[in-house]
Amino acid sequence: MFKNKYIKLVVIAGGVVLFDQLTKALVLRTIPLNTTIPVIGGFFNLTHIHNPGGAFGIMANLSATLRSIIFLFISSLAVGLIFYFYKKTPTHYTLLATAFALIFGGAIGNLIDRIRLGMVIDFLDFYLGTVHWPAFNVADSAISIGIGIFLYHIVFKKMPE
Question: What global pTM score does this model have?
Fold first, then answer.
């Protein structure tokens, strides 16, 4: 589909970043902080929260300065590593390249929030009864899907050398 693998990276990762930032801007403009809007009762809400920590709120209790330094460093390192893996992936490993592009786009989407706001905006809230999955966003979804594809590739496909 894409003759140049970097065009594929720009299209996929750029699409993730664009959709992520648009949805977060929409949430910021339309849903007051800490407000929940039921969408599918007993299963899904839109909930505007700010996550100053990492996944599942890890390190949210650290000082804002220390937290910013740690997460900006980790996020920048992750973006660089994922780009390196993408660059090293042979063009015929299209599914693996797609996984890295999704992860890359998601990491950039959340990095933009950390640079701009010092935290990440989360709003997708899935639950069953009283059991809630931590709220997340489009960037987190892309990262999770990319990691799932990567793990599938490790288990069921031969990895590039």
Answer: 0.90
